Amino acid sequence: MDRKQTAETLLSLSPAETANLKEGINFFRNKTTGKEYIIYKAKGHLKACKNLCKHQGGLFMKDIEDLDARTVKCTKHNWKLDVSTMKYTNPPGSFCQDELVVEMDENNALLLVELNPPNPWDSDPRSPEELAFGEVQVTYLTHACMDLKLGDKRMVFDPWLTGPAFARGWWLLHEPPSDWLERLCKADLIYISHMHSDHLSYPTLKLLSQRRPDIPIYVGDTERPVFWNLDQSGVRLTNINVVPFGLWQQVDSNLRFMILMDGVHPEMDTCIIVEYKGHKILNTVDCTRPNGGRLPEKVALMMSDFAGGASGFPMTFSGGKFTEEWKAQFIKAERRKLLNYKAQLVKDLQPRIYCPFAGYFVESHPSDKYIKETNTKNDPNQLNNLIKKSCDVTTWTPRPGATLDLGRMLKDPTDSKGIMEPPEGTKIYKDSWDFDPFLETLHSAVEDEIFLHPSWIKEYFTWAGFKNYNLVVRMIETDEDFNPLPGGYDYLVDFLDLSFPKERPSREHPYEEIRSRVDVIRYVVKHGLLWDDLYIGFQTRLQRDPDIYHHLFWNHFQIKLPLTPPNWKSFLIHCD
């Protein structure tokens, strides 16, 4: 098969339309495909891009605050793009927009051209063979965890089957089948998509490693290694395989898989194509724009996230516009946008079967009652109904222990044996969680000797390595209800020069106030963990002035902290 780069013409303008391009921003729509584009003109020079926000695929419109006619604003989250530079200005220092090639023909007509690399999954193509009934079975365990029987091999995705994720903020919604550990132990290989603890669950892997430390685990070669914290976790796994993106990994003569990176978070997020006898299973997991939006069409089975709610925004924010009414309206609108986006993705890709998963978590600890009530999630049946209205795709809302027989479903989607539901009386939803051991582990950090010395603050933020950025943050340790903790730390960090002033500086500066539950913030500090435990785990309450998302700051503390924890042993020696 010819796998050279291809050039695709996305938009053509007549000579007259080209001559009438105005200085500044021009919006165009390809009437045939319905796709939108932006052309920027400045003194005869032209730049162009898709009218598609890199964050979550929103549409750009003119920014009325932009007097220079260079900036467009996303209708989804108000991200702003300077089309003269193709750099995003809100959030500052975040992404660059991919440019399209602008070509003029001999008649001065304009063409917008996209240079497309070959699709990696098209290398060494295989024709689908007929599957025997029972040959390929996909069993849902819980959240993002699927157990795949592929001929005589078993593969498991993202096993989070016990304990919390994100410190103590997320707990399993579904009760996994009682034999989940036996199932994991029987697996021939495990794929872990990324480092977030609802996918890379150390409590789960600890139990697995005690029985099978040599189980083969496969992860993508992300900039931030998926298992960056393995040594410190105390979990002993001896067969972790880091594989390059976009290359088939052969398991046996019938089975292979390929890991692809996310277009928005390539430093940490991945997705996977599994192929058995020519039938593809696409799992996009949590990717915002999996493989930059280029994905195989007409796969046998596609699964993706759908629920929303995997962020502290806006539930943990207060002040300014963040009233309860505003939050409720925002969450409702966001969930609807996400449903429409996923439904459109399924319509575009036309898989034979689609399964919404990786959204089955609950904020079940009593202290997070407010989050649980506020942070509504999408209903998988609602998404599946939306899909059914617009395209002929079979949908599957999974229940723990339910098994989809791919051979049966491909032959006849109405086959009553195509999906075997769990036995009558099987417990579907969890109604109790073993909070105590995990909360005790977090709480053990509170009395640590480190925190007897106020100089830990300078030690920690120097280790973190974020500076030369005009932002002042007030960090406040709190009790369970986010009230300042008597005797707890309350301090300012000025990230412009990494100083710790007693008062806010007199210069103009953005300001954030971060209140954090003392057990979680001290555990995160002590072990050098990423701030996802705080932010995605709903363990903070935030205010900011002005109301701007500081991408560089949050991206650093959520993804780019050093790979080794602070050297507290050396710190304590010097303190003494």
TrEMBL record:
Pathway of action: Amino-sugar metabolism; N-acetylneuraminate metabolism
Top EC group: oxidoreductase
Highest taxon of source: Eukaryota
Domain Rieske, first and last residues per copy: 13-111
Pfam families, A to Z: Lactamase_B_3, Rieske
SUPFAM superfamilies membership: ISP domain, Metallo-hydrolase/oxidoreductase
Reaction it catalyzes: CMP-N-acetyl-beta-neuraminate + 2 Fe(II)-[cytochrome b5] + O2 + 2 H(+) = CMP-N-glycoloyl-beta-neuraminate + 2 Fe(III)-[cytochrome b5] + H2O
E.C. numbers: 1.14.18.2
Keyword annotations: 2Fe-2S, Electron transport, Iron, Iron-sulfur, Metal-binding, Oxidoreductase, Transport
Keyword Membrane: no
Family annotation (InterPro entries): CMP-Neu5Ac_hydroxylase_Rieske, Cnh, RibonucZ/Hydroxyglut_hydro, Rieske_2Fe-2S, Rieske_2Fe-2S_sf
UniProt keyword Nucleotidyltransferase present: no
The family this protein is said to belong to: Belongs to the CMP-Neu5Ac hydroxylase family.
Job description of the protein: Sialic acids are components of carbohydrate chains of glycoconjugates and are involved in cell-cell recognition and cell-pathogen interactions. Catalyzes the conversion of CMP-N-acetylneuraminic acid (CMP-Neu5Ac) into its hydroxylated derivative CMP-N-glycolylneuraminic acid (CMP-Neu5Gc), a sialic acid abundantly expressed at the surface of many cells.
Identification of the protein by name: Cytidine monophosphate-N-acetylneuraminic acid hydroxylase
Organism: Microtus ochrogaster (Prairie vole)
Gene: LOC101982390
